Structures
1.
Amino acid sequence: MSEDRKLTAAMFIGVRGEGIISFGSGQPDLPPPQEVYDILPDYSGFKYGLIQGQENLRDALAKQYPRSTSDSFVITNGASEALDLSLRAIAWLYRKKGGNKPRCLLCRPYYYSYLPLVEYAGFEPVFTDLQEGRIVYEDFERKIKNCQAVLINSPSNPTGRVEAIDTLKKIEKITEELGVYVLSDEVYKDLIYVRENYLIKGPHVVTINSFSKTFAMTGLRVGYLWSLDSDLVKMVIEMKSHTSMNTSIIAQEMAYTATTVPKRYVDEQLKIWESRRDMIYKGMAELGLDLWKPEGAFYVLPKIANPRDFVWDMFHDHKVITYLGEWFGAPDRVRFSYALDVDKIEEGLDRVGKYLKARKA
Ligand SMILES: Cc1ncc(COP(=O)(O)O)c(C=O)c1O
């Protein structure tokens, strides 16, 4: 592949058009709950809001998390800002105590923003490779001893796998013993097909979450972090007061409304995701692709020969958007999001099948 065929995720984010099928960004195509729109005609708050986040939303979240009050939350611009601020706050506090270069453990393949975020915050990244999409605890245990933080993501983007509860409990234990921060990115916690979510807990746990996926509100940019470490929470608020300031207050009010809708909304979405999962998994297996069966979230990560040519050709010649596994630390794979309706999944698979067949011939 020549340099002028350079591929970046930014080329594809938000790209729509006649005939394009996007297995690209992880953006639910299903609508948010109707109740979320219903607040709009009467909404009148346009002043600055609390940096930490609106009280009603934090109170509602406190009811969902054990041993918490509204003080344990910061409402952010999506999970993205929660990840960024937490990492920068951890690195900052470490340096203030005289530390030099902090290290952060990443489970590879990882969500593609983790590596840049970790590096922007000044961490040296350390990697533990997943096996069949899951943490190998022995390797994790060896590497965590030299780190100040670790990022966990279950269910995972891009693998679609859900971590074993036993492993999560061992991680809770060792990180508590070592005093290592665990950033547990649970943005897909409501999209699990195999079991209930297991919430990692502990004095150094920072749970990251979002309204983007569960409530299909990606563009509203509402996420949050939850932590019982009050020093960290204070540091995050301090940083946010000099950077983005408050998260959009109308979006927070819409997110608050989402917390009040019946659980039926999430259950019904989950059924739709599961049937799409079955369809794409079966379709890819029939194409002879080597992939893990997703247990949560809405991604598959098959092995594909010459992935750069695949992603380039599929887009330019067949109008199908896919993401290079290389961006996620999986250079022999390609990521497909199945956040699109079944007709499109079917048509996309058909185009992929034809391309792969022609390539073989
Ligand atoms: C694992 C993971 N974390 C965080 C995010 C960012 O979510 P948000 O839209 O809340 O910023 C995403 C989005 O795709 C994701 O997949």
Note: The longest strand covers residues 103-108.
2.
Amino acid sequence: MEIASRHNLYVIEDVAEAPGALYKGRQLGGIGHIACFSFFSNKIITTGEGGMIALDDASLKDRIEELRDHGMSKEKRYKHTHLGFNYRMTNMQAAVGLAQLEQLPKILALREQQQRKYESCLNHPEYLSFHPRFAACQPVHWMMTILLKRENIRDALVDYLRTKGIDSRQMIYPVHFARPYQRRYRGGSFPNAERISLNCLHLPSATGLKTEEIEYISACVMAFLRTRV
Ligand SMILES: Cc1ncc(COP(=O)(O)O)c(C=O)c1O
């Protein structure tokens, strides 16, 4: 924030994955000028699609609300003052989201238990590791992501889990693999991003996931890894 204020910049926080998380005791979403939350179907709170912007600036709020509503002036109906979008959330979606917001502390507590369960079942540092933790951060549990110690076996593990009725996902590719960025970053060396991206996978993560399911998934992961090391 200090750098931003020195250079007259806005800070937009991406809180898509982490409603309720803290940094140095402060809620994420309350640190920058604008915060964006995602309510896509795989997020901690979901309305199917869409999201929320949080901010503390009345004139920016008006501008964002106008942009969301076809660029129509808030003062004068049907007068379009910007080139806008149709990014309105329906009332039905909002009701679904608000009901979950009321439950957020309960949802986060449950998800934290799930994370601890996964971490105890998969506590085999010779085979895999979890997200590193930092003293200043109090994260929330969104997705169970594991980094495999042995390289080039991740896709085989995803296939193996599928045979056991478990849907897992490879991690997304690093940004420089995306076609729009390839020209600019071709030849660049980003070994950590590549190692993490190509050797990580996401295990099933959902508020409704049961303890026995976590035990079964973890047992299948370990059964596979023991054959590969
Ligand atoms: C960190 C982060 N930012 C942004 C997004 C995109 O959110 P949305 O799909 O609601 O646009 C995601 C989705 O997974 C995300 O994880």
Note: Residues 104-121 form the longest helix (18 residues).
